[in-house]
Amino acid sequence: MFKATPNPPDTDPTSSRQKSHSKKLDEAADRALDFYLKPKPTQAEADPSQLFTVVNGIDTESLLANLSETLASANAMVNDLAFDLEGSRRHVALGIQQLIELGGLLANRALDNVEPR
């Protein structure tokens, strides 16, 4: 059967509460999705050519100590490599090893000059 008149407007007070509650849930869901799916850009994203960075505020003594340890590790790796090589390649590896050793000596001297905290 065809009804000629439209349905009357909904005057039930609970339906407006449901719409308000539904709107609040939608807003909360949007905030949660934005938080996880739209992260804030960091400073690392500002310079894409820089792959590694050192945190600001680290004291000089810690920086020099880490530099000294890094150079000692590189020295050990090149030293092991040099004894597996022969001829001019071995001389190149030993030259690199000497440069690393020199860098380590300079870092250690700078570390000695830093006043301890």
Give a quick summary of the entry:
This protein is 63% helix and 0% strand. With 117 residues, it is an all-alpha fold. It has a domain at 54-113.
- Which assembly state applies to the chains in this document? single chain
Radius of gyration: 33 Å
Helices, by number, come to 3
Query: How much helicity do the residues have?
Result: 55-70%
Mean pLDDT equals 81
**Spatial gap, N to C terminus:** 92 Å
| Total strands | 0
Amount of beta strand: under 5%
Q: Choose one word for the global shape.
A: elongated
For the sheet with most strands, the description reads:
none
Order of helices and strands: HHH
Poorly predicted regions: none
Alpha-beta classification: mainly alpha
Protein name: DUF6124 family protein
What descriptive keywords fit this protein?
117 residues; 3 helices; mainly alpha; 63% helix
Could you please describe the fold and organization of this structure?
This is DUF6124 family protein. Residues 1-26 are annotated as: Disordered. Pfam families: DUF6124. Residues 1-11 have a biased composition (Pro residues). It comes from Pseudomonas viciae. The protein is mainly alpha-helical and 117 residues long. The protein has a domain at 54-113. It is built from three helices and no strands. The protein has helices at residues 13-37, 60-82, 88-113. α2 (60-82) packs antiparallel against α3 (88-113). The protein is elongated. The termini are far apart. 3% of the residues are buried. The mean pLDDT is 81.
